[in-house]
Structures are given as C-alpha cells and as structure tokens.
Amino acid sequence: MAIPYILAYLFAVYPLKSYGNLDRFSLELDYDSAVIVLDGQTVKLTLDSGSPGWYVMSGDAYEKKHGKGSCKGLADGCYFCTKSAPCDDILDKKPKTTSYYDEDCFHYVDHVAALSLGDLTIPGMKFGLIVEACSPVRGEAPKGVLGLSLGEEDTFINQLRTFRVINETSYTVDMAPLTSQKKGSVFLGHSKEDVAELNRINLTRRPDLEYLTTHRSSLYLFGHDGNSLIHGHTRDIHLHEEDPMNVLIDTGTTSIDLTINEYYRFCDVLKAKSPTSTEEAAFIDERGAVWVQLWAFRHLPTLGFDFVDGPNGFPFPVRIRPGDYLRTCYSTQCMLDILVVQEDRPLYCMGHPFFRAYYTYINLETMMMYLSMEPRKPAPSTRQRRKRPQDMALIWKVRIW
Predict the structure, then answer these.
(1) Which secondary structure element, helix H or strand E, spans residue 13, and what is its range?
(2) What are the strands, taking DSSP E only, across 190-288?
(3) Which domains does the chain have, with CATH numbers?
(4) Residue 401 neighbours by CB under 8 Å, 6+ apart
(5) Distances from the Cα of 232 to the Cαs of 268, 274, 325, 399, in angstroms?
(6) CA distances to 208, 273, 302, 401 from 224, in Å
(7) Contacts of residue 380, Cβ cutoff 8 Å, sequence gap at least 6
(8) Alpha carbon distance 309, 307 (integer Å)
(9) I need a surface site. Which of 162, 246, 250, 278 has the fewest CB within 10 A?
(10) 46 has which bridge partners?
(11) How far apart are CA 302 and CA 378, in angstroms?
C-alpha cells in the first residue's frame, strides 16, 4: 500500500503545469449514477450531494460470498484489487460502518487506487471499499456511492483539490431530462456555463449536518398555459400559508418531498379537471410515493416553489414541469417522482426532478448555489408504457410535455 501513497505525494507536490480543456474534468452521468474508472476498471456509483462518503463495492469480497463471476450480475459493477494496489488482507481487517436514512448500510475498509479523469491518471485516491452491504427496506443490490457533500479531507472533491487537479471545491450537475437520449455530466471544480449568466442563491450549513441547505416556500401549481392554479381555477396570487422549509438539494434522492397539505392541494387541482369522476385522481403507496390514474396524466400541473435566500432575501421561482417529475407509466396508472411526508420534518429534499429541470453549480467554499435562470424545456417525445405482471392491458405510447 506504500507505493500509491508515495505516488499521491509526488502528484500533490509536482502537479501538472496546465490542465488544458476543463471539460476533461468531468464524469458521465448514466441516469443518477456517475461513471468512474479506478485502476482501469469501470464502475457506476450513485451520485449523492447529500453525503460526503465515497464507497465502491469490492469484487473480491462479493465474489467470495456469492461465487466466482457473481459481480457480472451487478449492473453497476465491482472493483477488484490489483497488484499495484493489493488488498490480500481485506477480509481480515475490522470494517467501518456507515448508514443512510433509508436504512441502507455499508461495511467497508479504506483503500487507495488510481482514478482516471479524462486523459489524466490520479494515483492514491482514497475511498471506502465495501466488504458487506445491507438494504433491509429497499432490498436493493449492492451499489457504491460517490458523495459530493462537505466532509473530512478524504472526500472525493477534497482529494482532487488537495492534489491540485481542480482549483476550487465545487461541482456542477447537468442531469439529462428523462425524455432525452443524451447522457448527463458532472463537472468537477468548475461551472461549464458562465456564472454571470446564472442565478445565485446562498446556502447554509447546519451545525449538526455535513451538507448545505436553503429554504423553499410551500407549493403552488401552474397549468399548461402558465397560469397559477388554486383548486383548478386561476388566480394572480400564490398560497404561502406555511412557513419556509429547510430543503436539501440532493442528487441522491429520486423524488421531491411534499407535505401532506401540499399533496391535498395537488389532488384538488387534478380532481377539478374531472369533477364527475368517482375515481381518486391520485393516491399514495405504502412508501409514500405518489401515483396518478391514467385519465389524470394529461392534467398534471407544473410544481412551483420559491427558494427564499435568507429572511430578507429576494425569492427565486422554481418550476418543475410534469416531464421532469413523471417517473414511468403503466397501462392504467403513472408513478411520479414525488414523495409525501406525512409527519413534521426538519428537512425536506429536492431530488432528481429538480436537477432534470435546472443546470446546478454548487461551490462548497463560498456556500453558493447557481442555477440556470429558467428551467429546461423538455423536448416532446414518446415513451413506451411498461407492463405490470397483473395488468396486461393494451400498451400504447404517451406524450410528455
């Protein structure tokens, strides 16, 4: 293990003279996963701006438990130790443990490997090598995580800064809309877009947490014509009867959190579009995820919030169009990337729908977030509706606006 640390020291002391095109310091996004290359091996890691840790599944440990070749069954791959970065004693070490809000957990040991970033190879990058993973609630297969939040010196972003690969502790998430065939990107240490053309929002670090938060207003809704909706009718003012909420802008969360009152408001708007229907327009499953009936699909409103930049700050309007919060449709129902929180919480999340809608640059040094002035306009496209095993009704195509 000494050689990689020596190489890392030399890399930090004698950095490259010129970095050339900053585009090469980026990672490809495959849906919500960052594609990285360690010691020549490609793995996919869940991109998580809400946590600082960097964890990769150990192929040696996984195949010892599940049999040779079993890593091929993991869609996101495994990392196998190499001669230059051996880990013969990996299973003899006492592992550390980290856990998440959804009760997923990793048991891991520290390891170092060479990271390939564009045409640059960075030796001595330290991460947690997962020797055992658990997912008691979701039942998911093991998958590593690439945390981008604040943390100790060994976080992914901090190491790149220490090794002078990047000039600032920052990242940009440019997530592709679901309707796009393009891949998204994470730009490391810079914003690809001119910051002067972006809207700036102050972030706050909570003393008990390792990430940055802001505040949002309560939900208001818009129709396809851009008019504000209240119970299916238009009006010129917005409802803000609830106090601003602490919100985490989190790439590791698939959904947007709504309060139960906001969900009822959402249902009222859908119901108003078909007042004679005896069927509920929307419902919540056992996990809190929102589903809508097929007839209500075309009436989905645009979600509206204001980011509130401090008690006297100027509000920044956020708009999440249906094409950004629709997850998938079956033959009779559609699942949305909306999660209803039925109890009071100190923190709510803005997940994937937000990143699909907005180009987002976050500077961890200045505690600033920069957003595109307007949400992206998803290109009209068609998506095949999925089959449910218990429902083999006629499948047809739906249009996402």
Answers:
(1) helix 2-13
(2) 198-202, 204-205, 212-216, 220-222, 228-230, 233-234, 245-249, 256-259, 282-284
(3) 25-167 (2.40.70.10), 191-372 (2.40.70.10)
(4) 224, 321, 322, 323, 378, 380
(5) 7, 10, 20, 22
(6) 41, 13, 7, 9
(7) 179, 399, 400, 401
(8) 6
(9) 278
(10) 33, 145
(11) 13
User: So what's the pLDDT on residue 209?
Assistant: 66
User: Quick one: which of 31, 36, 46 has its CA closest to 140?
Assistant: 46
Helix (H, G, I), strand (E, B) or coil at 337: strand
- What the block records as the tokens of 143 is 């998958």
Contact 95, 118 (CB under 8 A): no
Rounded CA separation 133/123 (Å): 26
Burial 277-288 (b: 16+ CB within 10 A, else e): eeeebbebeeeb
Q: 116: helix, coil or strand?
A: strand
Q: Which residues, in sequence order, are CB contacts of 298 under 8 Å at separation 6+?
A: none
Alpha-carbon distance of 156 to 47, in angstroms, equals 11
Cα–Cα distance for residue pair 272/233, rounded to 1 Å:
8
How far apart CA 122 and CA 24 sit, in angstroms, is: 13
CA distance 163 to 9: 8
94: number of Cβ within 10 Å: 6
